[in-house]
Hints:
The protein is mainly alpha-helical. 69% of the residues lie in helices and 4% in strands. It is built from 3 helices and 2 strands. The chain has a two-stranded antiparallel sheet with strand order 1-2. The radius of gyration is 34 Å and the shape is elongated. The model has no long low-confidence stretch (mean pLDDT 81).
Amino acid sequence: MSQLDYEKEDVSVSKIAIYSLLPVIFLVVSILGVHYFLKRAQFKTSLFVNKANTGEVTNLEINAKRQLRSYVKKDNGNYTIPIDRAIGIYIQE
Length: 93
């Protein structure tokens, strides 16, 4: 009868634990890093938005609404018409 080979030592539990925990630690650190980055970017954006002059923003909105509701003849002979009127013409066609 031939001699059967078998493992002479046990599996290293510490190596399995280390190799199992490393991806988990990497994942947690990555998630925290992305969370911190996004929170910081959002904070910087909110600072930028808060610096805008609210009166200036209101004036821009008023001018944009006025343009959407007015008839204007351009230099090249084209006209701009109010958006509601344009939708009505489009629906009729």
